[in-house]
Design goal:
heterodimer, A: 659 residues, seven-stranded antiparallel β-sheet, five-stranded mixed β-sheet, 25 helices, 47% helix, 12% strand, globular, B: 503 residues, alpha+beta, Myotubularin-like_Pase_dom (chain B)
């Protein structure tokens, strides 16, 4: 609380983000220890969590007051005008302090109390059990076993304690391989495909240099290959793209000779497509620097595949550009599309998707195991492994399965959530929307396969909300070891049980679990299938959204159908009962007596049920229209019922109607 | 002329058909006067019945004795026929070319088509102007039905019956007609029951360079406003284009002569600009190999969505003037047969719940497009694959349907019909067995005796068995005005139509 000087400012204006005529709402701004709150004249509340604030900007003083622009990590942008400059300055300073915490212990999760007791909290943390998940996949088995090599985080600090490796890979091989791999992240199992007996493995790049070899590493790869009896070759996917190596090469004349030799070998290799050439050269550039890719000569039965996903810095600036374009007032269609193109965002999304599709095809069509790596093996590798598994295994397309997938490929394998999401005041160059891209890829899949996912878009948005909110402990820290040191399971709550409690909100009404049994998704990646994800990047700009939700209506219909089906069953069973009674009655010659008194009773239940049905409908509809805290959808309904001209009126106010 | 003269080879065996979404089929190809038919003659299944009038362009290729004909349809489909034998292939190709470009309307399929269904309701009489006027008559006392154009003598592109202010007699209308482009004097397009405001449409005033005036025109336009009320004239052309039009005898209303009215200029493109936009769009949709950057820049360069945005914005502006400002409006561009109709019809979709029902939408198309004289015959003569570049070919109606689709996407429960209904209308506007979209206006349709000689599209659509395909299961009547968002982030490419090859 020591950062808060002003807790309440009145007569603050909230400007409409896309209005060209400075339309605004007037209200009161409150500053609490965890949130910034704006209540407008209609008592509508806008809550902004301090942790969600990405940047605060104080603009030059205007006649109406001091403008304060806040951009949030969940893509909310608010523009306040505070009447007095001093108030604005106080709030500005407080927000700067409150949005960037120096210590983990100051994050919201450590003070958030949802009124659960210790046992409930612990049960929440035990909801997702990765050992259970590996068992579901079918490991350990005759080819794969649990390794205790990293039990004490001695080999790799950023891996989890429990790792699955080929049974024939001994501990010295593992240790040897880990020394050869960046950050000790040696090849381990990420996903096992039971029926194909093929595996997705992951690691970091080898520290091979130009001549160095590591026999243990070669052995470990052989072991992975042999652990797949279905196929004698395996793939190694390097997910990295072309760097700016050409100029780098030019300056490295002394090693130019070696390049010529290697590239001529590459040219002669029939297997290698021309397009891979540059990517290979890049990987070789890395190799000259002591890091790089596996020398093909030293690994037999291995097919190398390069896919071009850009690094975290490119992704960060790409998103930045995208958001800049979309924040423009009075954006034209052409500016929107040229901005979308120059940001490169959809190109990057497509690259991630293409990589995942390659991975899934290698396993599904060729039964080949695949080892995926990038540089450190916690960003692009996590994207590709998790998305590939999602394509292969319908379980990950359920609500619970998706949680497991995130726990496994992202949280446990050390995707650096705290650094990538900028939870603490740290290096801004470590921030990158890697996980957001993963969610977007999943969204594109839900668009192409509307029946394949148990969850809906709101689920993805909610998870995105919480990777930045720091309200729950799941995404705090950068690896499991750090999380244990922070004692997150004792001091904070897990997000997953709360999402499961709210499951109804996140269900996809079109989901068909039957048709998805063992179905591998084969998305079409023709460019035009990739669309701008408006509901993510404009989730708070409700004027841009459809005003009616098909999802809500279908949910209501489903609910009604269930009720009707239940009624049918009830009635049928009653008919059955009556029939048996009738036959009894005939036998005992008491037919007339038994039928007459009963039929009005049956009618009564029937009409009761009919009445019961209507309120169900109405209740759902009122929820949809009246509770603004619920979600975006309710807000549309709100707006819709008022039938205010939205964007149109803003752009073409009466003032501009003269010529 | 006999069709047989044009068909040199009526039948070829062992032809292979390739088309999107279906496996290749080998079968017998037959040419009739109006159809290209391919059947494998197994299980009596019909593999392909294609109207010659649906063919936009064809390409031929030869590899040895095997010929290939690639047929590009007006509904954007591309199908390929592999035909053994060079002579057969050349014959087929030239027959198709001849049959798909017949000059005479009376040789078109609708004049030969005999329906296989029972006609419950004759669509030709479903939406008579008198009936439409009846719907209003209880509320509109200041308006009347005029038969001044009974013989199509006052305005060749207007129907015989139009709704005009009661205060203006037929003689005055004749005078106004001489002052408006194509004789299109201002007529009622829509009456907003909520506040009694109206949308009128017309052709441009023929002011010319010396600022010609017409007292009757001024009187007519002012007669529609109640005392003290204001009105807006929406000119769908930008000011500079409107000014240039004066040199050719056209022009725009001087505000000094219409003191109660304000003029607003918008810029909706017309003619070949739209046609080129469609050609570019379909071309980039058909190229599946391009990378993301290329696709996005081509989509941008096509300008298709810019046109959509401009049309929707103008329609929203019109609706806003009416509903929010409580002002009547007059809409025109140059002829008043293209962008004008896009705006008047879309404004009604936004304002009038009835026009979002199937019957109401049909009535809207009948009233605001067919009877209002949108020249379908000219505009829909060719589609995205043609090279003819004729000024009068333009996807004006398709853009209107696309705009309706955009609103439908934003209000998925407020429309009684679904996307298939819009696609069906698009297909029939370009090639059909029905006479509805033949001709350029009522006068031409009368001369062709379409009512006697052809079947109406509505007779076919309005049967329960067909309607079920076009009904939106989520429809719940919504009596409010629906305001769509026109931000670029809210507009989408209508893939099912524009790029339906890729779906």
């Amino acid at each position: 609380m020591e950062h808060i000087r002003t807790t309440k400012v009145e007569q603050v204006k909230l400007l409409d983000r896309f209005s060209t005529s400075n339309k605004s709402l007037t209200g009161t701004l409150y500053l609490t220890a965890t949130h910034l709150l704006f209540i407008d004249a209609h008592q509508k509340e806008t809550w902004i969590l301090h942790h969600h604030i990405a940047s605060v900007e104080k603009l030059a003083l205007t006649t109406s007051g001091c403008p304060l622009v806040i951009q949030c990590k969940n893509f909310r942008t608010v523009h306040f005008i505070v009447p007095r400059e001093r108030d604005c300055h106080d709030i500005y300073n407080s927000l700067l302090q409150l949005s960037k915490q120096a210590k983990y212990e100051d994050l919201y999760a450590f003070s958030y109390n949802p009124k659960q007791n210790d046992a409930e909290r612990l049960r929440g943390w035990e909801l997702i059990d990765l050992a259970e998940e590996y068992k579901r996949m079918g490991v350990p088995n005759s080819n794969w076993q649990l390794s205790d090599a990293n039990r004490e985080y001695k080999i790799c600090e950023t891996y989890p304690r429990e790792l699955y490796v080929p049974r024939i890979a001994s501990k010295p091989i593992i240790v040897g391989s880990s020394k050869f791999r960046s950050k000790g992240r040696f090849p381990v199992l990420s996903y096992y495909h039971q029926s194909k007996e093929a595996a997705i493995c992951r690691c970091s790049q080898p520290l091979s240099g130009f001549s160095a070899r590591c026999l243990e590493d070669e052995h470990l790869l052989q072991a992975i290959s042999k652990a797949n009896p279905a196929n004698r070759y395996m793939y190694v996917m390097d997910t990295r793209p072309r760097h700016r190596v050409q100029s780098w090469w030019a300056t490295q004349k002394d090693i130019g000779r070696i390049i010529v030799r290697i590239s001529s070998k590459i040219w002669n290799d029939e297997k290698i497509r021309e397009s891979d050439e540059k990517k290979r050269l890049n990987a070789m550039a890395n190799r000259a620097a002591g890091k790089g890719y596996e020398n093909e000569d030293n690994y037999s039965n291995i097919r190398f595949q390069f896919v071009g996903i850009e690094n975290i810095h490119v992704m960060r600036s790409s998103l930045q550009k995208l958001l800049e374009v979309n924040g423009t007032k009075g954006l034209s269609v052409n500016d929107f599309y040229s901005g979308l193109e120059s940001s490169g965002w959809l190109r990057h999304i497509k690259a991630v998707m293409d990589a995942a599709i390659f991975l899934a095809k290698a396993i599904a069509a060729e039964s080949a195991s695949v080892l995926v790596h990038c540089s450190d093996g916690w960003d692009r590798t996590s994207q590709v492994c998790s998305l590939g598994s999602l394509l292969l295994d319908p379980y990950y397309r359920t609500i619970r399965g998706f949680m497991v997938l995130i726990e496994k490929d992202w949280i446990s394998f050390g995707h650096k959530f705290s650094e990538r999401c900028g939870h603490l005041d740290g290096d801004p160059k470590e921030v990158s929307p890697v996980f957001t891209q993963f969610l977007e890829c999943v969204w594109h899949l839900t668009e192409q396969f509307p029946q394949a996912f148990e969850f809906n878009e709101a689920f993805l948005l909610q998870i995105h909300e919480h990777i930045h909110s720091c309200q729950f402990g799941n995404f705090i820290g950068n690896c499991q070891k750090e999380r244990e040191e922070l004692k997150l399971k004792e001091k904070t709550y897990s997000l997953w049980p709360f999402l499961l409690d709210d499951q109804k909100k996140y269900l996809n009404p079109l989901y068909s679990s039957q048709s998805q049994k063992s179905a591998v998704l084969e998305p079409n990646t023709v460019s035009f299938n990739f669309k701008f994800w408006r509901n993510m990047y404009h989730q708070f700009d409700r004027t841009l959204h459809p005003r009616q939700s098909v999802f809500n209506i279908i949910m209501n219909m489903n609910e009604q159908n269930k009720q009707l089906e239940k009624d049918i069953k009830d009635l049928e069973s009653q008919i059955k009962q009556r029939k048996t009674k009738q036959t009894d009655g005939i036998l005992s010659k008491e037919l007339l007596n038994s039928v007459r008194p009963e039929s009005p009773a049956l009618k009564a239940t029937l009409s009761l049920k009919e009445q019961a049905l209507l309120p169900v409908n109405n209740v759902l509809r009122t929820i949809e229209g009246s509770s603004p805290a619920d979600n975006r959808y309710s807000e549309y309904a709100d707006e819709f019922s008022k039938a205010e001209p939205a964007v149109v009126s803003l752009e073409y106010g009466v003032a501009r109607m003269t010529c | 002329m006999e069709f047989a003269e044009l068909i040199k080879t009526p039948r070829v065996d062992n032809v292979v058909l390739h088309r999107p979404f279906y496996p290749a089929v080998e079968g017998t190809l037959c040419l009739t006067g109006h159809h290209l038919i391919l059947s494998s003659r197994q299980d009596n299944t019909e593999e392909l019945w294609l109207l010659h009038s649906n063919i936009d362009a064809i390409d031929k290729r030869f590899v040895g004795p095997l010929g290939t004909i690639i047929i590009k349809c007006k509904d954007f489909r591309i199908i390929q026929l592999d035909i053994p034998g060079m002579e057969e292939c050349l014959n087929i190709a030239s027959s198709i070319e001849a049959l798909s470009t017949l000059d005479s309307i009376t040789l078109m399929y609708p004049f030969f088509y005999r329906p296989m269904f029972e006609v419950i309701e004759d669509g030709w009489h479903s939406f008579l102007p008198e009936q439409e006027f009846e719907l209003y008559s209880s509320t509109i006392s200041e308006w009347r039905l005029s038969y001044v154009n009974k013989e199509f003598s006052v305005c060749p592109s207007y129907p015989p019956a139009v709704i005009v202010p009661k205060a203006i007699d037929d003689d005055a209308l004749r005078k106004v007609a001489t002052f408006r482009h194509g004789g299109r004097f201002p007529v009622l397009s829509y009456y907003h029951k909520k506040n009694g405001m109206v949308i009128m449409r017309s052709g441009q005033p023929l002011t010319g360079t010396n600022g010609r005036r017409c007292k009757e025109d001024e009187k007519l336009i002012n007669a529609t406003l109640r005392a003290g009320k204001r009105g807006y004239i929406i000119d769908t052309r930008p000011l500079n284009i409107a000014q240039q039009a004066r040199a050719k005898g056209g022009g725009f209303e001087q505000e000094a002569h219409y003191p109660q009215w304000r003029r607003i200029h918008k810029s909706i493109d017309r003619y070949h600009i739209l046609q080129e936009s469609l050609i570019k769009l379909v071309e980039s949709c058909n190229d599946q190999t391009q990378n993301m950057d290329r696709w996005l820049s081509k989509l941008e360069a096509s300008n298709w969505l810019t046109h959509i945005k401009e049309i929707l914005t103008t329609a929203c502006l019109a609706a806003q003037c009416l509903d929010r400002e409580g002002a009547s409006i007059l809409i025109h561009g140059t002829e008043g047969t293209d962008s004008t109709l896009q705006v008047t019809s879309l404004a009604q979709i936004i304002l009038e719940p009835r026009s979002r029902t199937i019957r109401g939408f049909e009535a809207l198309i009948e009233r605001e497009w067919l009877q209002a004289g949108h020249p379908f015959q000219q505009r829909c003569a060719q589609s995205a694959y043609c090279n003819s570049k004729q000024k009068w070919e333009s996807p004006v109606f398709l853009l209107f349907l696309d705009c309706v689709w955009q609103i439908l996407r934003q209000f998925p429960c407020s429309f009684e019909f679904n996307e298939n209904f819009l696609i069906m209308l698009f297909e029939h506007a370009y090639a059909s067995q029905f006479g509805t979209f033949l001709g350029n206006n009522e006068s031409e349709r009368c001369k062709l005796k379409l009512q006697q000689k052809t079947m109406s599209l509505w007779s076919w659509v309005n049967r329960p068995s067909e309607l079920s395909k076009f009904t939106n299961p989520l429809f719940e009547a919504n009596n409010l005005v629906i305001w769509p968002s026109v931000a670029p982030q809210s507009l989408q490419l209508w893939e099912d139509s524009e790029a339906y090859l890729l779906k």
